[in-house]
Amino acid sequence: MLQEFYVGAESTLIHFLKTKIAVVSLKGFEIIDLEHLNMNRGLPDLREPQFNFLGRRGELKPLAMYRVTDRFLLCYGEFAFFIDNHGSFAKNHSLIEWEANPDYVALYYPYILAFEPNFIEVRNVETVCRRSHSAICFLSMCFCLTLPQYIHNANFRL
Q1: Is the separation of the CB atoms in 62 and 28 below 8 Å?
Q2: What pTM, to 2 d.p., does this model score?
Q3: What is the full DSSP assignment across 11-76?
Q4: Which structural domain, as residue segments, surrounds residue 137?
Q5: Sheet holding 111-116, edge to edge
Q6: What is the distance, to the nearest Å, from the Cα of residue 72 to the centroid of all Cα atoms in its chain?
């Protein structure tokens, strides 16, 4: 049996949970219950006072949502934070503020990687700390990795 559901914005990512789907869109994050398609839930609930800091940030760019043990990590272009299973700000966790403004993020537990065209940032999601030497200048790394092949290439001229 085919059932349809509607997400009210352009979707960028989808995460499959046990009985639900988490959809990342340009408007934010939405949890869709596959058994009750009319009971969708937006995250975080911006009417809650604990999320007032989101309204003060201006235009937000949702990037990804990851399940990390019993919490969810909501990643935006400027920062990331944890919420619990009830959608509340997770206690004992700080806001992760990126050094740059990443275009993409990826979770490789226990690390979250934030990618910008010229910069990669790696943080431990449990401690929220940056790893030492984890901010990598991506352009320099590419240059160092690709330069030797051009030097040995007969067509390369200075």
Answers
A1: yes
A2: 0.76
A3: EEEEEE-SSEEEEEETTEEEEEESSSTT--EEES-TTSGGGHHHHTT-S--EEEEEEETTEEEEEE
A4: 44-151
A5: 104-108, 111-116, 119-124
A6: 11
Residue 129 in any domain: the answer is yes
Reduced to 3 DSSP states, what percent helix, strand and coil does the chain have, rounded to the nearest 5? 15, 40, 50
Asked whether residue 7 is domain-assigned, the answer is no
In a domain, 6, yes or no: no
Domain count, the chain: 1
Q: How far apart are CA 23 and CA 11, in angstroms?
A: 7
125 against 8, higher pLDDT: 125
Please state, in angstroms and rounded to a whole number, the distance separating the CA atoms of residues 98 and 119.
Answer: 11
Asked if residue 36 is part of any domain, the answer here is no
For the chain, the maximum distance between any two Cα atoms, rounded to a whole number of angstroms, is 64
| Model confidence pLDDT, tens digit, residues 47-100 | 788 887 777 777 888 999 998 888 889 999 999 999 888 888 887 777 888 988
